[in-house]
Amino acid sequence: MKSRVALASLCALATPAFAQEAPAPAAAPAAVPAPAAQCELHVWPAQKFQATTTGWGMGFGMIGAALDSAGHAKGDKARRSEMASALDSDGQIRALQQMDLVKVLDLPPSRIVMHAEALDPKTVNKVLSRRAESSAPCYNELIVTSVAYQKAAMWGRSLRTSFMLREFGSNSAAPLIKKTVGGNGLKIFPVKDGEDTSAADAELVSVFQKNFVEAAANFARQKGANGQ
What we know:
Layout: H1 2-14, E1 39-44, E2 49-54, H2 61-86, H3 89-97, H4 101-104, E3 110-114, H5 121-124, E4 138-152, E5 156-168, E6 176-185, H6 198-220, E7 225-226
Parallel strand pairs: 1-3, 1-4, 2-4
Antiparallel strand pairs: 4-5, 5-6, 6-7
Helix pairs in contact: 2-6, 3-6
């Protein structure tokens, strides 16, 4: 009996410590947060609104065109005011915020910065430096330059929106500039005096967004021009 106890004691002493106790499980690696976007897209709304109505008088020379323009001047002024109400700076920003601008423009992941105040139209084509105080290594600008209502006797009513995309490379002070226009038809705007404008305003916003998608497709086909 004593020999069996002695043998068991010797076996316990000969057994390595790691065989007696299971190792603790390795701790799971800490999650690494995704890197923040290194690019920025700055967006400005348009300040300029236009409304042009042309009738059949345009086909009768300069005199006919002048009479035609004068006859629609009052109505076009009212339509500019109506557009500016539905698509003022806040309205344009809200319409663009509802869209995936980075995806539609095919830009790298970007932080979007909306600017409520429109740029001075006189400086849009003259100032080639960054319009925002940003030192981001990857920086782009989307500028809405004008919103225009057109009605032609032959083609009907439409909303045309002009856009400018400026891409600043990391090694270039002058941007790569692309300009284009998106235009789509209107069926509701403008409404008659005294009628509710809700549906017409909603249509203007919807067509404004369609114009942006069309403009983005045009940008994709352009090579652009540096500083021009």
